[in-house]
Amino acid sequence: MRTIPEDEGSAGEGARCADLEAQVASLTAERDRLAAEKAELNDRLLRRQADFENFRKRADRDRYDFLQFASMEFLRELLPILDDFERALQVESTDANYAKGVELIYSRLYDALKKLGLEPMDTVGKTFDPNLHQAVERVETDQAEDQHILGEFQRGYKFKGKLLRPAMVKVAVRPS
Fold first, then answer.
1. Nearest-angstrom CA–CA distance, 99 and 89
2. What angle do helix axes 96-116 and 6-90 make, rounded to 10 degrees?
3. Residue 44 and residue 53: Cα distance in Å, rounded?
4. What is the pLDDT of residues 54-79, one digit of tens each?
5. Which of 39, 132, 142, 167 is deepest in the core (most CB within 10 A)?
6. Residue in 166, 174, 132, 172 with CA at minimum distance from that of residue 151
């Protein structure tokens, strides 16, 4: 067996220690780099998920708004037909079955439109609001308060809280 001089063993051990320390330092640097890269990728993933969620919500909102707009336009096109039914109901008819049929069609149409979100506006006796009413006639009178609605020429409607068609009304004004 050969004995290693003490100087030779320490130098070999010192070199090995230095080599191991260099490897540990290298592995630690690699670990820190990978941890930073992982954190960056995780952050990018979270941002992409948030962007996608925002996109999905925006697309849903746009789809809902489009459907609401399409529904409003459809209802706006049906309002003259509803008005015609109301006028037909005001005419006296000699045939009771005919009048009853017209009334039935009107009520079914009206109920179906209300289910979609159509809301008729009550105007007579209310205060005139230019945002909701269109003044067709102004009547000077002492019999009613100033700017109160005396009559309605055409009914106004809202669709889910939004004005669909203003009411055409007769408004009381104070005599000058």
1. 7
2. 160
3. 14
4. 999 999 999 998 988 888 999 999 99
5. 167
6. 172
